[in-house]
Design goal:
Keywords: Aminotransferase, Pyridoxal phosphate, Transferase. By secondary structure, the protein is α/β, with parallel strands linked by helices. It has 16 helices and 15 strands. Bound molecules: 4'-deoxy-4'-aminopyridoxal-5'-phosphate.
Length: 460
């Protein structure tokens, strides 16, 4: 990248601190500037085309130029560009979206609370759970269970529920009482020869043990993604959810399904909760809720959660929590239109069939010297990269092989994400057969180019 003085690249380096970026390295290599989008493609400022294999940040379900969302935003902006939802105020779009979401819920849900990002929704879930424990006269019931490799956001509270080292190291996190479990990652965590079912049994026993150690009466909830996304697209082993839920039920611990990535079709059914038979008390929604055209998030709570909260707010006088943009009219109007598009165009069943095609095509690459495992469900998958298949190891430093393949992918017109040494695939729900094939073919080329760069005989 040649950053001439005053170029957009130079100004980005001069003025912009990027999230989830190596700030020092950014000064050397500068930004990739994306200029426009169309379907599953985005184009950079030089006109180069890329397949967006991660749908932005796992979120642009309807693709990058959906005119109906532009029209929904424009129409609502002209009528009522902003209003709030504090102190009993409401408006048409927020009521319509709340009703729509409760109607879509795969298990009985009672109320929707609106927020603006996944992290805010997770923070809200945590605060409402603590509020509920106090309402029930159980102030000691505050601890939260999460799994290693979880991603639940980055605010002080949500960031603590996240269990990825890069999101913790060097930040002074205020650590509430969090109990961390082994990630349900069969490839990395199962013992040699351990079946998925036996691994799931062992993880459920670990959960039971940790609850007993911490004191069952002190634990309020478990937060979990149906499929762990940013931690590596970790699809839980067979029978995992059934066994985990039996343990939670035994100790009366709430379950929060973080559907921020899985929600609205990603796993081949409307919610990850449906795909895995999960019965949560709270569902956290974002990303494909608005296809990220505007920042939107929400949580649905059931009556077990709502009723004590309503009593407590009555006792205190107000539920003292909410955001200026909670239930923003333009955001909720766009989200509602986005959900209509997902339903009208059968994008959930498209995700299921295109996902099957994508996973089958990726599995054909399992014979490639750099591929250790392909895993996925619906239209979300990961390819675990290794240099030594038996030892399951990458290059010298963790993440180096992922970065190498990712670099070649991007040069070859494919934007994905290396999560350590695994590459994620999570394209827009609108993807077609030909586009799936093209995406996997660009990835295969990137693998070959990466392999050609490694010293001969170093790959086993
Ligand atoms: N939960 C999950 C499962 C996520 O994947 C993310 C974001 N990738 C979040 C929460 C946080 O969302 P946000 O970045 O909007 O705060």
């Amino acid at each position: 990248m040649a950053a001439t003085p005053n170029s957009a690249e130079a100004r980005d380096i001069a003025y912009h601190l990027h999230p989830v970026t190596n700030a020092r390295r950014h000064q050397e290599i500068g930004p990739l500037i994306i200029d426009r989008g169309e379907g599953i493609y985005v184009y950079d400022s030089n006109g180069k085309q890329y397949i967006e294999a991660l749908a932005g940040l796992w979120s642009v379900g309807v693709g990058f130029n959906e005119k109906r969302l532009v029209e929904a935003a424009t129409k609502q902006m002209s009528k009522l560009p902003y209003y709030h939802t504090f102190t009993h105020k409401s408006h048409g779009p927020v009521i319509d979206l709340a009703e729509k979401l409760i109607g879509m819920a795969p298990v009985p849900m009672s109320k929707v609370f609106f927020t603006n990002s996944g992290s805010e929704a997770i923070d809200t879930a945590l605060k409402l759970i603590w509020y509920r424990s106090n309402a029930l006269g159980l102030p000691q019931k505050k601890k939260i269970i999460v799994r290693n490799r979880a991603y639940h956001g980055i605010t002080i509270a949500a960031g603590n529920l996240t269990s990825l080292p890069a999101n913790h190291t060097s930040f002074e996190m205020i650590v509430p009482d969090v109990i961390r479990l082994t990630a349900p990652h069969h490839y990395r965590e199962a013992k040699p020869g351990e079946s998925e079912e036996d691994f799931a049994t062992r993880l459920a026993e670990e959960l039971d043990q940790k609850i007993i150690e911490a004191g069952p009466d002190t634990i309020a909830a478990m937060f979990a993604e149906p499929v762990q996304g940013a931690g590596g697209v970790i699809v839980p082993p067979a029978t995992y959810w059934e066994k985990v839920q039996a343990v939670l039920a035994k100790y009366d611990i709430l379950l929060v399904a973080d559907e921020v990535i899985c929600g609205f079709g990603r796993t081949g059914t409307m919610f990850g909760t449906t795909t895995f038979g999960i019965k949560p008390d709270i569902m956290v929604l974002s990303k494909q809720l608005s296809s990220s055209y505007l920042p939107a998030s929400a949580l649905m709570i059931n009556d077990r959660v709502f009723e004590p909260i309503a009593d407590e707010s009555n006792r205190v006088g107000v539920l003292g929590h909410g955001y200026t943009a909670s239930g923003h009219p333009v955001v909720t109007a766009v989200a509602l239109e986005n959900l209509k598009i997902i339903e009208e165009r059968n994008l959930v069943s498209n995700a299921a069939s295109m996902g099957e095609r994508m996973r089958a095509a990726l599995r054909k690459l399992e014979s490639h010297p750099l591929v250790g495992e392909v895993r996925g469900v619906g239209l979300i998958a990961a390819v675990e990269l290794v240099k030594d298949k038996a030892a399951k190891t990458g290059l010298g430093k963790a993440g180096e092989l992922g970065a190498l393949v990712n670099k070649h992918a991007q040069e070859n017109g494919l934007i994905s994400r290396a999560m350590g040494d695994s590459m994620a695939f999570c394209p827009p729900l609108i993807i077609t057969e030909a586009e799936v094939d093209e995406m996997v073919s660009r990835f295969a080329t990137a693998l070959d180019l990466a392999l050609a760069e490694l010293p001969e005989g170093s790959v086993k």
